[in-house]
User: Fold these one by one.
Assistant:
Number 1:
Amino acid sequence: MSKENSKPKLKMAVYWGAACGGCCVSVLDVHEKLFDVTANADLVFWPIALDTKYADVEAMEDDYIDITLFNGAVRNSENEHMAKLLRQKTRILVAYGSCAHMGGIPGLGNFSSKEAILKQVYLESSSTINPGPVYPETRHEVKEGVLSLPEFYNDVRTLDQTVDVDYYMPGCPPQTERLLEVFMAIVNGSELPPKGSVIGALDKGQCDECERKKSDNKHIREFKRPFEIEDDGETCFLEQGIICMGPATRGGCGCRCIEGNAPCRGCYGPPDDVPDPGAKMMSAVATMIDSDDPDEIEEIVSQIADPAGTFYRFSLPGSILRRKINTDI
Amino acid sequence: MEFEPTIVSFLCNWCSYTGADLAGTSRLKYAHNIRIIRTMCSGRVDPTFVLESFKKGADGILICGCHPGDCHYHEGNYKCLRRYHLLKKYIKQMGIEPERLHLEWISASEGKQFAELVDRFTGSIRELGPSRIKEVVNTLS
Ligand code: FES
């Protein structure tokens, strides 16, 4: 460390729970700005990039780490253990990305159950031969000792259903520019927003940010899948009969999907005043259906093939109902 | 002990609530299981209200509004009807019996119809048995 840079460096950790790895890569996506990051912070734990072990984290004092970006949902006992351990060792714990924030894509596992998933994977999938049948065991004794595996949970959980969370940074993955802004704000000692805030995103909704042409009265008589229309590239997706999560989604992502001519899928989660993204979508979409005839309404609604999976694609574990209640219905 | 369902009901101020009031002033007897919440219009019943009610232990939810064409705000009840169909589809996907949610039009003069509806709906939920939603949603497994 050079003399003029005498400010103590921040200690930062990045960890993944049930995640795809994209969030960790989004951190790498700072490209040459990585030098700004490393000039101001020491990365003390980051499994995708550094060979630090869990034992090294366990050896740290409490609150040793200034900021941890925890990405991924909590799916098994290892994720839970690490969430608790990092909570204990960290001053500012950030739920980073859709999975830690609301459950994300792994959260779609809440449409199923532990039993059904294990059965599918270890018994029924066509490439599996398992006459035992043998299922993963959390503990297995061999002559050399005991082998262990984390326990797979029935429920996928969000980070804040597991430990206390200071901030949420949404996105699948969060936009790297937003991460840099937040990071530099912390480095420069700016006043941080109140605990529990969503950071690195806007308060307003996606539709306010979207530049496509919108009329005040949307009249939808038919819902379609994107491949069924010839998108004109400028009219609101909903007005073309395509489900777009804009009305129930927070802005701040830079409308990347929409600019790529794909409807919003809702990875930034709902704005502050929306408790449940799906409920908001049901409300919004119902307002747009252009029919007063009960049979016709039923017919139009039936064109939305999978409301649960579409409206809660990134947010099932964090939603009001959280999971499928009865897997037999 | 016989299962006593908890029924949460949203009634619009202008027709259905007045209809329920008429049932009361006419001294009609109907199932005591119902908890009535007055909203200004059935179009005010946000799907969040329905989901939260289930989460907090409702075994059945009954929404009532003005008959088609009679909504005080012109088309609130149509909005309600569209939301209702979407909600039905959604709760079925979530493993909740769709019969636990019901929508019916009750006018200000239909006190008798309201009383009968409450009895009928309560009976059907009693037959369906207790909802597991509250227990499942509130316990991580
Ligand atoms: S006022 Fe009764 S349904 Fe709108």
Number 2:
Amino acid sequence: MSADPAEPESGDLAAGEYVEIANEFAFVKVRTVHTRNGMRLEITSPRLGRGIRLCPMELETLTWQTPETFSGFLQTPHGPEPEAE
Amino acid sequence: MNLESIVKAVNDGMIPPAIYSDEEIFRLERERIFGRSWMYLAHESEIPEPGDYVVRRIVEDSFIVVRDEHGEVRVLANVCLHRGMQVCRAELGNASHFRCPYHAWTYKNTGELVGLPFHEDAFGGDANLSRKEMALMPAPRLAIHRGLIFASLDENAPPLEEHMGGFDYFLDFYVNQSEAGVEVRGPQRWIVDANWKIGAENFSGDSYHTPHTHASVVEIGLFREPKANKRKEGALYFAGGGGGTSYKLPERDFAANLAYVGYPPEMIERMRARWTTAQRALISDGPFMVSAATLVPNLSLVHNWPVVNAEGQVVPFISIRLWQPISATRTEVISWFAVDKLAPAWFKELSYKSYLMCFGSSGMFEQDDVENFTSLTAVAKGQFAQRILLNGRMGLARDGSFLHEPIADWPGPGRAFTGYGEYNQREVLRRWGEWMLDTGGSGSNGSAR
Amino acid sequence: MRSAPLTSTEGLARVTLELHHEVTMFLYEEAEALDNGRFRAWLDLLTEDIAYRMPIRVTAAHTLADSLLDGADHFHEDRYSLEKRVHRFETDHAWTEDPPSRTRRFVSNVRAWTAADGDDVIVKSYLLLFRSRGDVREPDWVSAERTDVLRRAGTRFQIARRLIAVDESVLRTQNLAVFL
Ligand code: FES
Ligand SMILES: [Fe+2]
């Protein structure tokens, strides 16, 4: 990976360097993105073509989750299914 | 030869070569030994954090050895409950959930099934396919001793402690040098065309091969011990489910002897604090230092102390290895380097170097051993060769009595001899015979004791 | 998981055609020495501070880059240990190679760069080792990519670093009583 900060994807945001996190089951790219007045953590899944930007408080809520929360998310292992949307 | 007469011959110390080459015998071993006994899979230091996993086998069966999100070690069949796809295909990794590559059934790292695509549509939801009731099949039995993770496919296997018996006294010299225990590196894995028992027997007690097979490592000044006269002064011990070889030490002093094999004072002090009086006595009064060993059926250990650099520094190493059978005539050797977690960094590095020089895929001792193991296996296939009964009676008189008395004031459990003798190899094969003849009929728990 | 550091060639200049020929011939001649059991001559091709390494390859997730373990090796040698290995083959008791294996080292796909600092040349090559022992056994193969750092020593090169990236996670040769 290059040492330069990654190019922000949408013109209005500055962004940090991507960190890639992978295991044999999933692959995501994570980086900080800077809004005009603050920052978020962006997680994208190139495979699913999905992304989310979490604010500090959303991230903070993750610290009190148990593995069950994530098991719950994984009830639909490919992400939302049509009828659930 | 039928199985009864094979076992009878083996118990007389006369070995039918077929036990090293016959596929029918291997088929029975698979079921009666590997399907029942305690099988070593991994060391806890290979999966220190939640989600860390390694994939290991018991013969053909693949298992995920994982530390779950709550810190508990699990041994899960690496088989998706849907159509049997292998869930983890990497040898190691970290994951809180495993998602099957075929249709994406998803399991927690405890094994529980948590998600499957279109559960409602495809299976009628939990009412018809209840996720709660489904989990990657755990190994029937799991036990951890000093960080060594074992599993048994037999529900009714006796406890690991019982299987190990007094051998735990000796195992401590390898993996319990401080309260922290060992950390491992590796494993190196390679395949040799040899029957799995040959290595297991060799490590359990073949001090007789060392002066000859390993003459070269003495000649180049790598290891000074294996000279014939030195080797036969060592004790050959067997206790519970395992036995091994040792070397006679020069002093009658605990610290001096450990320093002689290259341990630094801080490690010696931790060993002094960690081991029992009886364990310390082996090193101070025996005085003996453990070297190779085998816990039946197929786990071996090594402890040697070669010269590790041009300055003549002696540094010991420890290695753990598995003789993982593939067929009657092929074995995957899986070899780990182990070192006490609290050892100083310089010691860990030099000890690692000393391991690589001596044992493992490139080790200079190992190289010559394997040449013997493969050759013996190839010869054992011959129909004419199979008319021979190989002689494993070293140390026995014609009438079956011992040529030499066991060591009278042996400080450890079990029985020990000095001098040359195939006491331990016979013991390894005697247990093999017990397993093989145990058909696991009604009333039996299907396990050899 | 930590992966073994590979010498980076990013941003480095390829060597000239002439130098490329020189390093290729160097590797061929090295292979020739090994295939003919001239181990002393081979040692001569290594610097005093040689670091000779063959990390363990694992079947790892997702990227090949992470599949070479750091701190877990088949070989992690210095001059002392390589001298011992060669010395051992010179004794009359190195049974594993007595009678010796017949080996053939196929060296190909040679790429070379000038190192950022100084005269060193970084060379990557493919190696396919064929090893035949005795008369009844199937031959063994070991396939690897090697990354070498070659250093000028007067008019010739010496190997200062070698990293052997083996392709198999489970070796199908009975031991590494061979140099790669
Ligand atoms: S086989 Fe695993 S999800 Fe179908
Ligand atoms: Fe040996």
